[in-house]
Amino acid sequence: MFPRILVVGLGALGGRIACQLAAAGVPVMGVSGGGAADGDVKDLTYQGPDGTQLHVSIPLAKDHHDAWNFNPSYALVAVKSYHSDQVCDYLLKALQEGAMAVTLQNGIGNLEKLQRALGEDRAAVGVCTYGASIRDHKVLWGGDGEIALGSPSGRDLSDLARAIASAGFNVRLSNDPLGELWRKAAVNCCINPLTAILRVPNGRLLKSPWALELTESVVREVSLAARLNGVDMDPVRTAGTVRLVMEATGNNRSSMLQDLEAGRTTEIEALSLEVARICTAAGSDAPVCRTLGLLVKAMEELPKENN
Ligand code: KPL
After folding, report:
1. Which of 159, 175, 191 is where one domain is finished?
2. Per the structure, how many domains does the chain have?
3. pTM to 2 decimals?
4. Do residue 90 and residue 190 come from a single domain?
5. Where is the Ketopantoate reductase N-terminal domain (predicted)?
């Protein structure tokens, strides 16, 4: 028997995960957007790499009472990082005692927010390098990667790993969740702003020596910020991981590029600009991350037709 899973945020990644879990027979309930739903169910279609489609109807939690009554063992959090505070308030009311929240989000600081809201023992990470996008109300495959699950307090997540693996994802249990988070932050600090500024799919960056040179500087800066947070990250190995993700999600348009194209706020504050803030606060600097971050902020402000 699989654990019951609440998927909070049914955007591209949350939608893909919810769809694949439900199709595999895992009991799933969804929470869309800010937590308020229009109907009782959400019909989701996910189109895989070979064009095959999964169609599922996922029950929606209209409010936190529905989620509480569903009694999930896990909430997978897949909302934008700037909605984390709102989601913490929601989960405090929606989760029964002992249920855990697992952040699949991009960005630095999401785990800490969940830990503060629910307690250290009830927050975990699911570092995810899968790609997805939404077109014409359909969730589209955007590349495969892995989901590394880890609980800083050492809680056993193997039942969650089994459920996610049954849905066709590569899952790994990690005893270094903070290292996983920082390596993923490096991936996103490289791929997301560069693809958003250059307006190219992820794999295109591999063809540009200039973009790859920038990537190496970004990885060095993220490694410094990680070290300032007590996490040792090997810049050479991490740059290799970044290139692997560029390749595996080659045709995907990063979430930041998708956000800019749709006129939405991006997650740059929790990525490049957070790295710059951490380094500056320690008397150091992260000039490349800061510049990329400010460029993306300036692009957010441009009228949509220019984006
Ligand atoms: O996390 C992603 C994102 O776009 O936000 C990657 C893994 C880079 C896929 O595009």
Report:
1. 175
2. 2
3. 0.94
4. no
5. 5-152
> Is the dihedral angle over the CA atoms 233, 235, 241, 247 positive or is it negative?
positive
- CB of 133 within 6 A of ligand 1: the answer is no
Q: Which of 190, 254, 271 to mutate to test the pocket of ligand 1 (most atoms within 8 A of CB)?
A: 254
Claim to verify: residue 38 and residue 142 sit in the same structural domain:
yes
Residues 6+ apart with CB under 8 A from 215: 190, 194, 205, 239, 242, 243
Choose among 181, 175, 196, 167: nearest CA to 58: 167
Domain of residue 39 covers 5-175
CB of 241 within 6 A of ligand 1: the answer is no
Six-digit token string for 134: 């939404």
Query: Do 132 and 30 share a structural domain?
Result: yes
Could you tell me the two tokens for 260? Answer: 């800019």
pLDDT in tens, 60-111: 999 999 999 999 999 999 999 999 999 999 999 999 999 999 999 999 999 9
- Any ligand 1 atom below 6 A from CB of 266: no
Q: Which candidate, 205, 241, 211, places its Cα nearest to that of 223?
A: 241
252 CB within 6 A, ligand 1: yes
Strands of the 74-77 sheet, one edge to the other: 28-31, 5-8, 74-77, 100-103, 123-128, 147-150, 171-173
For residues 71 and 210, state if they share a domain: no
